[in-house]
Amino acid sequence: MHQPSRPIKLIAIDIDGTLLNRNKQITQRTWEAIQAAHAAGIIVTLATARRYENSIPFAEELGISIPMILCDGALTMQYPQHTVIATHLFDSDIAQQVADTMVQHAVQPIVHHITEQGEETWSGPDDFDNAELATYFNYYPAVKRHTHHTLCTGKPAPLRIVAFTSVETSNAVVPQISRYDCTCYMIERGIYNCAEIVTMNKSCSKATGLTELTKRIAISMDQVMAIGDGINDREMLQAAGWGVAMGHASHALKAVADAVTGNNTEDGAAQAIERYALLQYPTSGL
To answer: Could you give the CA distance from residue 279 to residue 266 in angstroms, rounded to a whole number?
Structure first.
């Protein structure tokens, strides 16, 4: 049976579509598998596109102290101490170009910052606020408004710029933003039930966050298992010694993975932890 070449010492798990089932919950089996890994001395981290604030509930539920790779690797923070471990900031001039392009398409830029006071959300005047943003602003009402043309110019470098809009608009905007010296990708349906555009430092990914973390804790990358389901998990699965794609992941992601597990309605993350980290082989699942 195809197995990791070395014992797994660190597991990096994507949150949405991987750790969570379709009801946005950690199932009992997944919770127990993570607790068993922790008890076995394996470090478990969450590697997500989410921000720190809306990742905390899952870290709390797991009940373990973990460094979390956030904002697709742009930020790594230690839970529960709320301390910043590392950042990969987005050049302010490039970020302004991204914001300008969004505005040209009547898309509201949402700029994410990390300061000594914590996470901050900046945006432009409410001219381009839309229905897709309503749910987001329910979660993050403390938005600092700036004029669009000075949203990033002369300001501290942000973590990233995101936008929430329709698939049609995203398909028009993303090719233009991709011409800039940055990372840009689109999710057709994100956690706010609309298309999401994500832009950030070109060198930034979950893989860079994971690599830096392994150096910090002196674990070799060939002793890391990464589990994910999305386009933003690709580099992480390739960089890890053992990359596992969820069963519902795209064919492209499965092609770069070392193994494919069940989907998130079948406790796929738990299956992977049991089989490849804990070396258990349950009769159900895979």
So the answer is: 18
